[in-house]
Structures are given as C-alpha cells and as structure tokens.
Amino acid sequence: MDQNVVLDQEEFENYAAEEESVEVLTEKYLLFHSGGLLFGIPAEHVVEIITNHTITKLPLLPYHVRGIINLRGQIIPIVDIRLLLNQPLEEDTCIIILDIDDTSVGILVDSVQRMLDVQQDTITSVPTNTEEKLVSGMCSLSDGQTMLRFDCASLLDRA
Length: 159
Prior knowledge:
Helix content: 10-25%
Mean pLDDT: 82
Strand order of the largest sheet: 8-1-2-10-9
Distance between the termini: 72 Å
Structural class: alpha+beta
Shape: elongated
Largest sheet: 5 strands, mixed
Order of helices and strands: HEEEEEHEEEEEH
Radius of gyration: 21 Å
C-alpha cells in the first residue's frame, strides 16, 4: 500500500503559505549599557565600536554633544547618552559609530554587551508622551533583562 501523499497545486500553495506564516521574524541588535539601562540598537546602523579615542571639544554645541572625533579623515560628532539621560559622566566609556540615513554619528556609552537576535513581535511600544524620545520600544530578554530599543532617528534630531 502506497503511503505517499500527493498534493495538488492549490493544496501545496496553502501548505507553503502556512509554513511561511509560522516563520519568526528576527532582527539583530547590539546591546549596550548607559546610565544603568540596557539599550538595543539595530545592527544595521552599527559601523564600528572604538575605545581610547580623543574627543575634541568645540564651543557652541548642544550640551549632550561632547565634541567631535577625526576617524580616518571623517569628522564625526559624539553624543553622550548619559547627558541625554541626565546621568553623571563615566570615566570608562566606548564609542559606537552609527550610520543613520547616510549620516555618521558616534554615541558615547558605558559599555557594549553583545549582539543578539530579537524577535520583532516581542518588541512592544512605549508611551509617546515622554520628554526625551530616545526609546521606540522595549522587550524582555530570555535572561530576564529588559532591552530598550534605541531610536536612531530621534538621535539625528539632537546631534
């Protein structure tokens, strides 16, 4: 007796559609700490992570822009996330260089933790009436931590 199942074209397409709908969409995030909070930034914006780079202070910049760096001939403004969060400055920090809409900007953070795949459907929205819009969503991670999704677009408005 033949146990093979034969599907016609319509049944096959329905089966394939069901299989595709089960597929979980994930996005890579770089996790970093700043001001005692855990942020995640979409990996598509991350260019590189640097340490021990001299920041040149300039006059007439917004309070949260610490200055600029010259990275291989490119002048990049550096935004201090702690200043945006009204937190005291840290001694040991690193800079994450970002590319947001073809604009390079660096963010000064306390530490970089790791890269992580996050399911898109686990990210929930945050209240929009917050004064400082740095976060566009949040989710709980498997280790019990809460990741705040860093809003790259709002950063450009401040740099």
